[in-house]
Amino acid sequence: MLSLPYVYYAVDAEVKLEDRLILVTRYLEDEGVYETFEYKMPIIVSVYRNSNPPRDISLVRKVEAKLNNLVKTVDNNTLKLERECIGLRGSPTIVAKIEDAKPIERKKQIFKGDPREAAKWLLDNLTKEGVIKP
User: Fold this and answer.
1) 44: which strand partners?
2) How many separate domains does the chain show?
3) Do residues 6 and 44 lie in contact, with contact meaning Cβ atoms separated by under 8 Å?
4) Could you give the count of Cα atoms lying within 13 Å of 33 in the half-sphere of its Cβ?
5) Averaged pLDDT, groups of 10, the chain, 134 residues long
6) pLDDT score at 88
7) H/E/C letters for each residue in the chain?
8) Which of 23, 53, 59, 131 is the most buried (most CB within 10 A)?
9) Which of 57, 58, 19, 69 is nearest to 40 (CA)?
10) In a domain? residue 23
11) Which residue range is the domain that position 86 belongs to?
12) Which residues pair with 10 in a beta bridge?
C-alpha cells in the first residue's frame, strides 16, 4: 500500500509547487455537487471520465507521426512477460453466457389537460407506484 491520500473524479487541479500543495476539485455525479480539497503532495488523483476529451488528430499530424516513426508498436517479444499473464490465457474474465436484454413493459399512460392537474396526477401516480416517496 502506498499510504498516500487519494482523490477521485477530479475535474480541476491547481498545483502550488513552492508550498508542495495541490488544490483538487472533484465532481460527485450522483449528488451533483463539486467538492474542493487541499492536500500536501505527493497524492494520487484520478480524473473524472469526461474531464479531458480526446482531440481529433489532423491528417498531416498522422502522416508526420508515421513518416518519423513516432508511433512504436510493442509486443511480448519486447516485453518478455509470462505467457500465462497476457492475452486470452491471462484474462481474469470468462464470459459464461450472453443473453439479449428483455424489453421492459411500459404502462404508457397519457394525461391530457391542465398542466397543474397533470403535475398532480403524475406525482400521485409515481407515489402510488413507489417510484417516489411522499
Assistant:
1) 6
2) 2
3) yes
4) 3
5) 85 92 91 92 88 83 91 88 85 83 84 89 89 82
6) 81
7) CCCCCEEEEEEEEEEEHHHCEEEEEEEECCCCEEEEEEEECCCEEEECCCCCCCCCCCHHHHHHHHHCCCCCCCCHHHHCCCHHHCHHHHCCCCCCCCCCCCCCCCCCCCCCCCHHHHHHHHHHHHHHCCCCCC
8) 23
9) 19
10) yes
11) 59-90
12) 26, 47
Pairing mode, strands 6-16 and 44-47: parallel
Whether 33 is covered by a domain: the verdict is yes
C-alpha to C-alpha distance for 64 and 15, rounded to whole angstroms: 34
Grid cell listed for 76: 511480448
The torsion angles phi and psi of 24, rounded to 5 degrees, stand at -115, 130
Distance CA 31, CA 16 (A): 29
Q: Which of 35, 42, 47 is nearest to 11 (CA)?
A: 47
Instruction: Write down how long the chain is.
Output: 134
Q: Is residue 111 part of a domain?
A: no
Q: What pLDDT score does 10 carry?
A: 92
